[in-house]
User: Fold this.
Amino acid sequence: MTDEQITTIGRCHLCKRTFSFTPASVMTVRMDPDTNLPLGMTVSGAFREPTPEATARSVEQHICSDCVSRMKRLSAFLDQPALRFDTWHGGR
Ligand SMILES: [Zn+2]
Assistant:
């Protein structure tokens, strides 16, 4: 009996680094081959609703854990509601 996980060698689509991963747990991202950016991400780094055309042509790519955490940081950052500086009228 073995609980060894079979690892596969692949290439990260974002940083082009070769990395090993377990197919069951690897992170994939849908890339838009036209822009070479993750689906829905714009060149400026902002997210927007992908067009149906972009969704149709997108391909799933493997992403290494480094890039996953980078993207998580980015999306956590983007998910933050913008800091609001409400005008404070001194409580009155
Ligand atoms: Zn990577």
Summary: The first strand starts at residue 8 and ends at 11.
